[in-house]
Automatic annotation (TrEMBL):
Record's protein name: Ribonuclease Z
Binding site for Zn(2+) 1: 63, 65, 143, 213
Keywords: Endonuclease, Hydrolase, Metal-binding, Nuclease, tRNA processing, Zinc
Keyword Transmembrane set for record: no
Similarity comment: family membership: Belongs to the RNase Z family.
InterPro entries noted in UniProt: RibonucZ/Hydroxyglut_hydro, RNase_Z/BN
Note on cofactor: Binds 2 Zn(2+) ions.
Entry EC no(s): 3.1.26.11
């Protein structure tokens, strides 16, 4: 099976601590790297993870709070110092370019590559990136400013041929592409050979849902339904549910409730408030609602 790995570079909240750096992740999909948020310290964690800077081409920024984007200018500068030549595309709300462009002009003038900004509407669920292997769509969230999560979903591949049956029916080469697309084969005699006899079942596509800063929001459930892995912020425990509501964040129990209702396979918690010393409490609270829970930390590589 092709590679689909999540690397956690940072899973803390707004205040950096000795335990965690702010939000940043990298998805390695078939050796193409997709970065999700870029808090302070992200490029150092990138190096520690032994990922290859040259394979990074797309960055997705959920919103413009500093703990999700303060690392961008440093990373962009480092890529220039490394002699990068390929374009770097940043997907974000429209305001980011106006904030970052003056910094690029001052600190990164004359770089050997281009930074391209592609804005999205955080209030809509829509595809913002696609290639032959992956499709990325936005997940509208509920935070104190425009904010979107991201759903990474493999593109369904063509069907695999059953070689024995293809030879048995002596099917011409020109017909194979149609069969891979799901069509039946009509023999010269007029007999219809069903596609299911000529192909093997597809490997199910994998889905990763990233829900960054958000209050409890059931509207996202149809979008993330059945995801192999859901990362959902859990800034607070239920003892601070009132503060979670005020700051438009979630508790571990609320994250688990979303996971259960969306019938995801696994839930990863993160974006922990620095007020908590024992992160196992987050897992314990979530597991009272949804059993398959893991805690994000900067050493995790999760294979989907």
């Amino acid at each position: 099976m092709n590679k689909f790995e999540l690397h956690i570079l940072g899973c803390g909240s707004a205040l950096p601590t000795m335990k965690h750096v702010p939000s940043a992740q990298v998805l390695n999909i078939r050796e193409k790297l997709f970065m999700i948020d870029c808090g302070e310290g992200a490029q150092l964690e990138f190096r520690r993870s032994r990922l290859h800077f040259g394979r990074l081409s797309q960055i997705f920024i959920s919103h413009l709070h500093g703990d999700h984007c303060f690392g961008l200018i440093g990373l962009i500068s480092t890529l220039g110092l490394l002699g990068r030549t390929g374009d770097l595309t940043i997907h974000s709300v429209p305001e980011l370019e106006g904030i970052l462009r003056p910094q690029l002009d001052f600190f990164c003038s004359g770089m050997s590559y281009k930074v391209i900004f592609k804005p999205f509407d955080s209030s809509k669920n829509e595809v913002i990136y696609s290639d032959r292997s992956i499709r990325v769509s936005t997940i509208p969230l509920d935070h104190r400013m425009p904010c979107a999560g991201f759903l990474f979903e493999e593109v369904e591949a063509d069907l695999n041929l059953n070689g024995d049956m293809i030879r048995f029916y002596d099917i011409p080469l020109k017909e194979l592409s149609k069969i891979k697309k799901g069509e039946d084969y009509i023999m010269p005699s007029g007999e219809v050979v069903p596609n299911s006899r000529l192909t093997k079942p597809r490997i199910p596509v994998r889905k990763y849902a990233y829900c960054s800063d958000t209050a409890y929001k059931e509207d996202i459930i149809p979008i993330i339904k059945g995801a192999d892995l859901l990362y959902h912020e859990s800034t607070f425990l239920e003892d601070n549910a009132a503060r979670a509501a005020m700051t438009r964040h979630s508790t571990a129990r609320q994250a688990a409730t979303i996971a259960a209702k969306a019938q995801v396979k696994k839930l990863m918690l993160g974006h922990y408030s620095s007020r908590y010393d024992n992160e196992q409490d987050f897992a314990d609270e979530a597991k009272s609602v949804f059993k398959n829970v893991i805690l994000a930390n900067e050493t995790i590589v999760e294979k989907l």
